[in-house]
Amino acid sequence: MHSQNLQQARRRHGRSARSAIGGAALVTLAAGLLPATGLSGNALAAEGWWRDPRNVESLITQHPHSPWVGDRLPSSSSPTVEIPHPERPLTLAELTDLALRNNPQTRVSWAAARAAAAQVGIELADYSVQASGALGYTRARQISQTGTVQPLIERYTPSVTLSYALFDFGVRSNQLEAARYNLLAANLSQNRTLQTVAFAVEQAYYALLGSQQLVRSGEVSLRNAQTTLDATERRRQSGLATIGDVYRAETAVAQARLAVQQAGGQVSQARGRLAFAVGLPVTTRFSLAPVPPRLEAQKLSESVADLVERAKNGRPDLVAAEAAARSLAANARATAAAGLPTVAATATYAENYFVSRPDSLNWSVGVAVSIPLFTGFRDTYNTRLAEANTQRQLATRDLLSNQVELDVWQGYFNLQTANTALTTAESLVRTAAQSLEVSEARYKGGVGSLLEVITAQADDVNARVQQIAAQFNWYTAFSQLNYALGSLPLAAEAAPGTPGAASGTPVPPAPASSPGASSSPSLPVQK
Fold first, then answer.
1. 421 with 408: CB under 8 angstroms?
2. Helix 243-278, helix 92-102: angle, nearest 10
3. What is the pLDDT of residues 308-358, one digit of tens each?
4. Which of 26-30, 57-61, 214-218, 366-370 has the highest mean pLDDT?
5. Phi-psi category of 362—alpha, beta or left, where left has phi over 0 and alpha has psi -120 to 50?
6. Distance in angstroms (rounded) separating the CA atoms of residues 23 and 177
7. How far apart are CA 36 and CA 500, in angstroms?
8. CA–CA separation, 298 vs 415, rounded Å?
9. Residue 123 contacts by C-beta under 8 Å, 6 or more apart in sequence?
């Protein structure tokens, strides 16, 4: 009896000692973790350290009205772009080439195409044998149920497992088809991105040239107004003009100077937009090669119906939308088949190397059938989701098809209007110049009035501005129609009765407006 009490006392003493040791360990652990939290004991008790044990609140501002100031801000670096020959005026073709090389949009679309190509490789991997290896090491000592201690076991186990899907109701084939259509859509989207970049360069290029023409036209108007002011001063000294005539002439000079200054501001803005479109820093200095000073009216050799049909068959983004719809349809079929059984062949080979025992060999070959029984209707709704995405893409394709028709229709008649405006503007400039010449002669001869001269000057300025606008509106309209078609530059012929009709002068093309368009595959788009 005494020995039993002694044994119970010893066990209680052992448990107490282990509890004391465990408590001391917890205290030591807490003391070690306390500095890591960055808080003192009082702060832990006051703030409730369990609400933020990692002290992440210190990484943000402490008040809603305080700005965040970081000491390790990431620095963004952009590649340095240089013009090959900065002293030489750049043509539209050279600017377009620079843009296609330097504009980040082209890199974004190219990276997307590379990602789509990689996805095709991922899907092809499912058609290969899947192999995996493992190497295990075990060191164990076990005790039997009777309490006998077994010898120490030390084992090395290398193994190889092979598997191959034999049948999956078309999951792999449909996933591969979806990836290939997605790759086609990415490639065509890249083509459209190149066209978009080139189109933006054309628009900015013509806008800058037009603004520069307005500056030169305004400077001519300013010189004419200054000449009229000088003549009015002389007539006033001779008693042939009043002080009111001088004030009126000075007002005309001030208006002409203001127009030149405003046009100069437009030139600076247009230069920055062109540099941005090309992918250059906006502070880059460059000059532009001039366009032909005279542009003859042209007419298209194709009807608007033919142009609409050509755009619907070859515009990259529309064909890409069709490819995306087919990709989603194939993905929907793969999703529907994912809930069906799959059959796979498996093989395993493993060797067991013991330190103090004879080695052994394990292997197996078999066929496994995987049958999904119930997933909470997940497969059902995944299929519905894939089908809905397909229908949405089909609707998006039809919407884009209608937009293509509208773009070509508007571009066609914008170009027709620009053709008419060219002839009208040329006649307007001719008659305004003649009117100004007659008014100045009458004023110098003492017959006409200063108001007549100022009015004629304003008409001449407006006529030249209209001519500049008509010329660059034609270039812009031609570029817009070319972009709407998404194909090579249009074939056109000179209108009858124009100087270019006999020689067959073609329409000046908009260079590099449609890179890559000719490679668009023949993928019919059907509503």
1. no
2. 50
3. 999 998 899 999 999 999 999 999 999 999 989 999 999 999 988 888 778
4. 366-370
5. beta
6. 64
7. 84
8. 9
9. 172, 175, 176, 178, 179
